[in-house]
Amino acid sequence: MEEIETLAASGDYSQWLDSQFALPQSSHYQWVSTSLPGIGWTTATDVVQTAWRDAWWDIAVNGEDQLRQRVAFALSEIFVVSMFGPLINRPDGLTVYFDTLASNAFGNFRDLLGAVSRSPMMGAYLSYLGNAKADPVAGSRPDENYARELMQLFSIGLYQLNPDGSRKTDAGGNPIPTYTQADIQEMARVFTGWTDDNGGFFPGEGHVTHHARITPMVAMEEYHDTGAKQISRVLGVNVPAGLTAQRELDFVLDRLFQHPNVGPFVGRQLIQRLVTSNPSPAYISRVTAAFDDNGSGVRGDMKAVISAILLDPEALSGRQGNALSFGKVREPLLFITHLWRAFHAVNGLHKRGWDDEYEYRSFNFQYVRSFLQQNAPLEALTVFNWFTPDDGPSELVNDGLVAPEMTILGISGLHHLMMSLVHQTYTYEVHNMTASLDLSQELALLQAGNHEQLLERLNVLLMAGSMSGEMKQLLLDYINDHSSTVPDTLVRNLISLVVTSSEYAVQR
Question: What is the distance between the alpha carbons of residues 253 and 12, in angstroms, rounded to a whole number?
Answer without folding.
Answer: 37
